[in-house]
């Protein structure tokens, strides 16, 4: 009998109307558990508590299950895709097809 592994939820700090929503869609697409912490861009991002998470005081911020902090949308997307090669969020590796503004815009 195979042992079932559980994945710890990933904490994603973001602003729902911003670039974080593309990442939420990507997490949903691959079935990766996550917890979204909404950040008020006008108030919470400019305080010392948020600066201790992300010195650039921007969203999104991902804190991985290993405690690593990722702060750019494409870095988070690449990290997420590397975790699951079966449910991709982009083109297959080594294909001739290249992403265009239209096909990759849902991540930004």
Structural description of this entry:
The structure is a single chain. The chain is α+β, with helices and mostly antiparallel strands and 108 residues long. 30% of the residues lie in helices and 14% in strands. It has four helices and four strands. A four-stranded mixed sheet has the order 2-1-3-4. Helix 1 runs parallel beside helix 3 (73-83). The longest helix is centred in the N-terminal third of the chain and has 11 residues, at 20-30. The protein is elongated. Mean pLDDT is 75; it is low at 1-5 and 100-108.
Key descriptive features of the protein:
4 strands, 4 helices, 108 residues, alpha+beta, disordered C terminus, 4-stranded mixed beta sheet, elongated
How would you briefly describe this protein structure?
The protein is of the alpha+beta class and 108 residues long. The chain has helices spanning 20-30, 48-53, 73-83, 101-104; strands spanning 10-14, 34-38, 61-63, 69-70. The chain has a 4-stranded mixed beta sheet.
